[in-house]
């Protein structure tokens, strides 16, 4: 892989942001 760590990190960040947005929308 070119940079698997970067890909994994990006996915983790995206998931975190999505969850945060969902929580904000719920309120």
Task: Describe the overall structure.
Keywords: Elongation factor, Protein biosynthesis. One of its GO terms (molecular function) is translation elongation factor activity. It comes from Codium tomentosum. This is Elongation factor Tu 1. The chain is mainly alpha-helical and about 25 residues long. The chain is about 85% helix and about 0% strand. The chain has one helix at about 5-25. The protein is rod-shaped and about 40 Å long. The N and C termini lie far apart (about 40 Å).
Keywords:
single chain; mainly alpha; 1 helix; 27 residues
Elements, N to C (H/E): H
Please report the number of helical segments. 1
For the record, give the distance between the C-alpha atoms at the N and C termini, rounded to a whole number: 40 Å
Structural class: mainly alpha
Biggest β-sheet: count, sense, barrel? none
Percent range for β-strand residues: under 5%
Which regions are unreliable across 5 or more consecutive residues at pLDDT < 50?
A: none
Helix content: over 70%
Question: What's the structural blueprint in terms of helices and strands?
Answer:
Layout: H1 4-26
